Amino acid sequence: DTGVSQDPRHKITKRGQNVTFRCDPISEHNRLYWYRQTLGQGPEFLTYFQNEAQLEKSRLLSDRFSAERPKGSFSTLEIQRTEQGDSAMYLCASSSIEEQFFGPGTRLTVL
Amino acid sequence: ILNVEQSPQSLHVQEGDSTNFTCSFPSSNFYALHWYRWETAKSPEALFVMTLNGDEKKKGRISATLNTKEGYSYLYIKGSQPEDSATYLCAFIGGTSGSRLTFGEGTQLTVNP
Lengths: 111, 113
Known about the structure:
The complex is a heterodimer.
Chain A: E1 5-7, E2 10-13, E3 19-24, E4 31-37, E5 44-50, E6 53-57, E7 65-68, E8 75-79, E9 88-95, E10 101-102, E11 106-110
Parallel strand pairs in A: 2-11
Antiparallel strand pairs in A: 1-3, 3-8, 4-5, 4-9, 5-6, 7-8, 9-10, 9-11
Chain B: E1 5-7, E2 10-14, E3 19-24, E4 30-38, E5 45-50, E6 56-59, E7 62-67, E8 72-77, E9 86-94, E10 102-103, E11 107-112
Parallel strand pairs in B: 2-11
Antiparallel strand pairs in B: 1-3, 3-8, 4-5, 4-9, 6-7, 7-8, 9-10, 9-11
């Protein structure tokens, strides 16, 4: 499968714990995006990488959130001290030019 | 804040019906409009990327039109099938928003056999 993959697909955690998600983009894509979708809403932009450089961050990305793309390939999104409001679907997408290809997402539930 | 709106929020149709949804977006500073189909437990699937006013694109029974001057796009499905059941999302890219997608809330389509 040469699409975008995300791991894990589901994560249940207790409030206050840290969680980390991984995204493996399509191999030749230099752009990588993270989005978050909460119930009843469309996905919202979180952050964007071109190669290993993080070029844009949304105001939604509080200081508890950090994203990395160390070698310009896979990316990780870490949430520290999770809160119930962090419960959402976290989507990763990659692109080379215009069209963004999405992974299946990681569904986070914070109890 | 960019406002992208979709209507209706949900739609139930019978197999064989044709249907259409609307996406409205800011008419100023337009760069591109994307349509996605998102089935439960799967990845959002890109349907169309539309950039030019008056664009019409087609993929099988699904087609889309674009009016950038008035800020709307229509998505049409001809002869709906149960496998068309999904959430249909539109996403706007403005000229100054880099490459970030601003999504609408989606239209949830259910096609009954």
